[in-house]
């Protein structure tokens, strides 16, 4: 575990293969991390979000099935698309793909699954409205993920189930017409607590001063 701010910010990673599927996670620990998430800045300080946490095994299994159907939807769209794949055929990308596949296979075994929602439907929203809503949930989620790390827990921001967002809403009694789901976050203790900074050397090519 780490509490040094710079180390925390530079080594908190998406965790999939290194989630400990056998170790229970206490509800109170996750709720403490959520309270830290709630401290994040958000639009007009209105906290226009809600969080659904699932630890019941049969519901986790149903969530995992919806998630896998979302993957099938994505693969079908990719197969029908004439656009080139945005993912490079590199060893690093193959490792990420293997990690994603591992999570898909074991999602139902993850001790707690978290789905945050933000108020309103965004399909027909203006760019201003979308940015305002996402800007109200993203900082809270990142705070939550950082808080998890300080307690030896890990997670990853996943979105495949959003192809089947309405199905997930029906399963979890989420008011689909009133809120938008922001993702699905598997929460578990990590296998080991040491993580390294990622190679972000190419990021400096995307820094622009005064004009593009």
Structural commentary:
By secondary structure, the protein is α+β, with helices and mostly antiparallel strands. The protein contains six helices and five strands. Strands 1, 2, 3, 4 and 5 form a five-stranded antiparallel sheet that branches.
Share of helix, binned: 40-55%
Query: How large, in whole angstroms, is the Cα Rg?
Result: 18 Å
Largest sheet: 5 strands, antiparallel
SSE succession: HHEHHEHEHEE
Amino- and carboxy-terminal Cα gap: 39 Å
Low-confidence stretches: none
> Which homologous superfamily in CATH is the superfamily?
NADH Oxidase
CATH architecture: 3-Layer(aba) Sandwich
CATH T-level fold name: NADH Oxidase
Characterize the quaternary organization of these chains. Answer: single chain
Which structural class fits the helix and strand makeup? alpha+beta
The number of E-state strands comes to 5
Overall form:
globular
Figure out the total of helices: 6
Mean pLDDT: 93
Please outline the helices and strands:
Elements (H helix, E strand, L loop, with lengths): L4 H7 L15 H12 L10 E6 L2 H24 L10 H16 L5 E8 L7 H24 L2 E2 L10 H8 L6 E3 L3 E5 L23
Antiparallel strand pairs: 1-2, 2-4, 2-5, 3-5
Helix pairs in contact: 2-5, 3-6
